[in-house]
Automatic annotation (TrEMBL), chains A, B:
Record keywords: Lyase, Thiamine pyrophosphate
Organism: Pseudonocardia humida
Cross-referenced InterPro entries: Phosphoketolase, THDP-binding, Transketo_C/PFOR_II, Xul5P/Fru6P_PKetolase, Xul5P/Fru6P_PKetolase_C, Xul5P/Fru6P_PKetolase_CS, Xul5P/Fru6P_PKetolase_N, Xul5P/Fru6P_PKetolase_ThDP_BS
Full protein name: Probable phosphoketolase
Keyword Lyase part of the UniProt annotation: yes
Top EC class of this enzyme: lyase
């Protein structure tokens, strides 16, 4: 199965490959130059200390492999007029992909201050990893990149994400052998069971074994070839193994073998796609192909110094970063650097003006076919607005507050089905086998789960093509969606709330990417990354403690306010309105937490739209302050806390009718923050208007209570804000027992009111005791019957205190 | 290679297997009973509605597979007198492992209120997933478990962690085919390149393909067998494939095949270990064996209802949770439940008192050989204190504050080498190829990286046996360490600060496990999970933005205060003292953040010990308040913020000598919190003593500034606390430019003092402008030279304001 090609390709002549080699040398020269030089870029004079950067920062080891692959891909892209995207798994090999972008002219198009001449070359070198310059990785600043690669593991999932619904696109994905040890990458191989061979594009995984990480060998470089190939076959690929460049092998020989393998792979991809298209046209089942995968084994730091200070460097971990560390102060190092640079024969590559020779320029594909210039790597260029059907058609009828019950996510699902119908080729829903569990099953009336493995009778809404991608890996869901968004499409990721922490780190990287792109003029805005977190902390009746964690919100708000949004719609209509908004936004991360269990509904559609537009507001029907200053503010954010707060209001009405209570509901959590801290933040004046400046505020919050303090600590009334939320108390138990365990229940909220409003504690000690007794009653009922007491399980407004007072 | 055994084993008779089947039926009966019944446990009367629980919560689908494997493992454990540990990857199959623990008598030994009789059986049933009872998963409460399994992906890494340095232990690890889709599990297969076949125990991976997740098929169940087996071979295993129970196959036939396969596997493991021991004894290189791995394919919900309400249930995702949902209200469902329960023939399994028949009891291994009773699953029973060498021997000489420079982690590394030498069999260091990068390379004077793949010349401190485990997967580092700690050993995980977020979710689960175990009397305390986070946010000179995230601390402090500790030692001696403390603690998660770059040293060893013992304190040599009330408090936490704060003090001394400044350094971050919130929290009196009640506090903090507010918002002086920290500004740049980008630099701290101390702003406007100019000067220098200006790069106390005033 595996091929080690030995024949030169038919159509490529020796001189073609010599040109290709020259192009590769140019890219390598430009890479080394970026790492080392700040002057004398063309080596027109002997290298002096002041030509060398004082701080040498960058990663050489992976770079020559990246440029080698780029050069060979260019050969076939040009010939086949192929649309291609290059994913740089070893993203720290930034110099390599910056160099190729400059060689292809894209860099100078994006950055006019870095023209394709000697002056531009000097600036290209100087700016790299230099204060005020560009980062050392394949960053947002890098043309052609959608993948930073500083945090390893996500290359192949980004590649698949880019390929979905892009049938004409070839995504060449370079995977470092260090990265291949990570979990997310290891899970990514199964993407071939999800990519449709006609409707989706082609991903070509290129596992680049250069053998070493920072200071140690890699696992995959140290297992026998037969195991390596078994592994690739086991993942469903047809592996091609190419090894070259060791023991001083002439690169030309490697070029010849590589060109041959690349031709075979390209031909095979074409055959696979043609056959799948035939199957589809004939109405046959489209079978999962054995896509090719390339395993490339070359020395780490190939073409770099063989030995430095008596240590082997090329082909070892010592070439990971900067092989020659003292080139400014150590004359021998500097001489070796100059010698190294001259091995690329720059005088053959660049003309007197420092411009690459015309023959080299001619090797690059044209315009957007250049991988450095493909619009797929600047997704905003391709982005089409979603066609969003009228969500109000799915409004839940709310004759009065507290009616229902209805499932918020269930309601949303019906609208999402409409969204799917209206956007059949640029909207996808990702989830770890939880689409139905999170009650979005209505989308299956409009589409299926896409799966290119064996489908058998009894499978529920699984077919070859569908808008829903389900795989039990939050990493893949996140990575696929990121790749899909970064290439200009739309989607959402639905997930159990607790387990979204699995992708905390991926969120970080995407958030950082978005933050950086906001300051890069040529990067066009992309669709926001939308989370729908359901099966949340308060309703894990059958899974208990391990499934209870509302802390993703805390994690998210550490990132730049300009890209982060958090919504806690309390019912179905507010969820509809919120999600309609989220799907229209750009360049944000929207976190929406919503319950799936049937619950009481509070707002009519019109009220919901108005409330969501404000993001925060008084619910007059649950307040009796009549617009004047209340005695106490009950605030709430989240569906379960809202129910408890409203139920507390009804208790207060009955027992303390003279108390002036204001209920404030928060949908848009960032409204709590200062307007100077977050674009959605309320002014102090508005905040004070809602929360008063001196009255007690009892805040029933969905998550960890400290977050409310973190958001409001600058507010004038902060000392009076008392927050109830999840404090890591939980197990397999009933819904009301859960809120009681965390003191978020209605009875405890009433106790909090009594404790905090001046003058109530003594006068209403009996009522407070009654609340304590009510908690005990509920606790006992639950322990005995295994269910919540009926009055708390199916709460309705007590007749006497109905919502319309 | 793959074996599908068809012959009955030689040594096991038909009647042995009939008994085994009875034991299995008993375990299944007890499992179904837990999910459904609250009364009539032995079905001595027809099932009535009130016998059935009102809320049916639990997962049936995976359970019969778990009990089947347990039964067959017991057969060989008993015969071989094998020490064994069972890891329940599908941990939500809790009823199964609770049932086997009860059958083996362990459950009643741990919980006297659940004896091995009819009354105990009723309690066993009632308590499951019942308020006030036990969780539905294989929880800390479950005897024999070290693995909750609610968050999928970590079974095989826990298994390997348990096996390290436990040569006599067999760890049978059941991996669900849902779990197998996750990244962490996919990465775990490479464990066989790290487990030593003589010094470490044996892990037997059992991939259980029951075909379905919650509502969808699994990927691995839908690929051809040859791919599946190639995958296992590619991972370096010898796979055994056993399929049974489909199309109504008699379980006895499956038992026969399973017994044969299990015998083969056990024999093969013995051969492998014997051969490795011979190699070792002969002084030969110990080769990596092809360990066996079992792929077991049985129907989901095997032996459960075949069909319910016209839908197929056994063998489909519909048996994932509760196959019969309305057994209390729907008479047909209830009848079907009774019929189902009776298929296990309880009258043959339990005597008149509800006690399992003696023949069944006799099948369990004896005492601690029972998997439910193994001390390896209650690691505290096996825990030996570390022998901790005197860390003061590694003290850095600090003739005066600001001397040095020295590397904190480099200094720690030398002591850790001593720890390794003194504890050759129960202490390990895990890291993602960053041990040297984090400057712990001194440990390689005492030990090597352990690796059972190909080792070649030039590899640096890599050998077959060593205390350091390096794999480029933070998931594996975390999971291996968890497994190692849970089975009673010690260790630490060193990691780049930013990428520890990769295991946020794993930390959550371990923290929850520790929280729960504190309330389970028979769970003995285990060693703390120790993080050493280095290569931190402020010193990512060559990696930039993607490598900058100090938010793990924020994540950690959301968990229960009783198990969470966070330390930010400012220099080498404080790091030594801190880590010595951490390695002595139990049942905590200790997060230690420390720099690796050479930096100024502040405290002598004696001072460091005293300071770390307090956790927070005034540095008198950096203060001039002479014990009286200062005009301003400069607080700092973390090495870089401490340097900036001290440098700010020196500027203030020079320019505003009359200003009374107090410098407070925080090592133990939890000291900031209220003593009612955290056991380490300061009393208000002590806090006020340090931070005053009304003076401005300028707080230079290592991480996101909001955390300091979250920890101190209840303090009297909170309104005057002004925090500088990381606010997501960063790129590839110099160290001082990084602190300037985030306004944490000394000049900005002085500006903050001028802005906040009443009376300074107008009077010292010129000084403020000077600070602004200083920042501009540094910025310009860096942009021009690519390095920090010498005076900020190599800061020393200016002569005139030396530390000893």
């Amino acid at each position: 199965m595996a091929v080690t090609a030995t024949n030169a390709p038919d159509t490529t002549t020796r001189s073609d490959l010599e040109l290709l080699d020259a192009w590769w040398r140019a890219a390598n020269y430009l890479s080394v130059g970026q790492i080392y030089l700040m002057d004398n870029p063309l080596l027109r004079e002997p290298l002096r200390p002041e030509h060398v950067k004082p701080r040498l920062l960058g990663h050489w080891g992976t770079t020559p492999g990246l440029t080698f692959l780029w050069a060979h891909l260019n050969r076939v892209i040009t010939r086949e007029e192929q649309d291609a995207l290059y994913i740089t798994g070893p993203g720290h090999g930034g110099p390599g992909v910056v160099a190729t972008a400059w060689l292809e002219g894209t860099y100078s198009e994006r950055y006019s201050q870095v023209p394709q001449d000697a002056e531009g070359m000097q600036e290209l070198f100087r700016q790299f990893s230099f204060p005020g310059g560009i980062p050392s990785h394949a960053a947002p600043e890098t043309p052609g990149s959608i993948h930073e690669g500083g945090e390893l593991g996500y290359s192949l999932m980004h590649a698949a994400g880019a390929a979905f619904d892009n049938p004409d696109l070839l995504v060449a994905c370079v995977i470092g052998d260090g990265e291949a040890e990570t979990g997310p990458l290891a899970a990514s191989w199964q993407q071939n069971k999800f990519l449709h061979p006609v409707h989706d594009g082609t991903v070509l995984p290129i596992l680049h074994l250069n053998g070493y990480k920072i200071a140690n060998s890699t696992v995959l470089a140290r297992i026998p070839d037969d195991e390596l190939l078994d592994q690739m076959r086991g993942h469903g690929y047809r592996p091609y193994l190419l090894e070259g460049g060791f023991d001083g092998e002439d690169p030309m020989a490697v070029h010849e073998r590589m060109a041959a393998v690349m031709d075979e792979i390209v031909a095979e991809i074409a055959r696979i796609r043609a056959r799948a298209a035939e199957q589809l046209a004939a109405g046959e089942d489209v079978q999962r192909p054995r896509w090719p995968a390339l395993v490339l084994r070359t020395p780490k730091g190939w073409t770099g110094p063989k030995e430095v200070d008596g240590h082997r460097v090329e082909g070892t971990f010592r070439s990971h970063q900067v092989p020659l560390a003292e080139t400014r102060t150590n004359e021998a190092h500097r001489a070796q650097l100059e010698q190294w640079l001259r091995t690329y024969r720059p005088e053959e590559l660049f003309d007197a003006d420092g411009r690459p020779h015309a023959e080299l320029l001619a090797l690059a594909p044209r315009g957007p076919k250049r991988m450095s210039a493909t619009p797929h790597a600047n997704g905003g260029e391709l982005l089409r607005d979603l066609r969003l059907p009228d969500f109000t058609r799915h409004a839940v009828d709310v004759p009065e507050p507290g009616s229902g019950p209805a499932s918020a996510t269930g309601t949303l699902g019906a609208w999402l089905a409409d969204v799917v119908r209206a956007n059949p080729d640029n909207f996808r829903i990702m989830g770890p086998d939880e689409t139905a569990s999170n009650r979005l099953q209505a989308v299956f009336e409009a589409t299926d789960r896409q799966f290119i493995g064996h489908i058998q009778s009894g499978d529920d809404h699984v077919s070859r093509a569908g808008r829903v991608l389900e795989v039990l890996s939050e990493h893949l869901c996140q990575g696929w969606l990121e790749g899909y968004l970064l290439t200009g499409r739309h989607g959402l990721f639905n997930c159990y709330e607790a387990f979204i922490h699995i992708v905390d780190s991926m969120f970080n990287q995407h958030a950082k990417w978005l933050t950086a792109t906001r300051h890069i003029p040529w990067r066009r805005p992309i669709a926001s990354l939308n989370y729908l977190l359901s099966s949340h902390v308060w309703r894990q009746d059958h899974n208990g403690f391990s499934h209870q964690d509302p802390g993703f919100i805390d994690h998210v708000v550490n990132k730049k306010a300009e890209i982060v949004r958090v919504y806690l719609p309390p019912d179905a209509n507010t969820l509809l309105s919120t999600y309609d908004h989220c799907l229209r936004t750009r360049n944000y991360v929207n976190v929406v937490v919503a319950g799936k269990n049937p619950g009481p509904q509070w707002l009519t559609m019109d009220e919901a739209i108005a409330h969501c537009t404000r993001g925060i507001g008084v619910w007059p029907w649950a307040s009796n302050d009549d617009g004047a200053e209340p005695d106490v503010v009950l605030a709430c954010a989240g569906d379960v806390p809202t129910l408890e707060a409203v139920a507390a209001v009804s208790l207060l009405r009955r027992h303390l009718p003279e108390l002036k209570v204001r209920l404030v509901n928060v949908v848009d959590l960032m409204r709590l923050q200062d307007e100077r801290e977050h674009p959605h933040g309320l002014s102090d004046r508005d905040f004070d208007g809602l929360f008063t400046t001196d009255k007690p505020v009892i805040f029933a919050y969905h998550g960890y209570p400290w977050l409310i303090h973190r958001l409001t600590y600058r507010r004038r009334n902060h000392p009076n804000i008392h927050v109830r939320g999840y404090k890591e108390e939980g197990t397999t138990t009933t819904p009301f027992d859960m809120v009681m365990l965390n003191d978020l229940d209605r009875f405890h909220l009433v106790m909090d009111v009594i404790d905090r409003v001046p003058g109530l504690a003594v006068k209403h000690a009996a009522l407070r005791q009654h609340m304590v007794d009510e908690r005990l009653r509920c606790r006992r009922y639950t322990r005995e019957h295994g269910t919540d007491a009926p009055d708390v399980a199916d709460w309705v407004w007590p007749d006497s205190t109905g919502p319309r007072m």
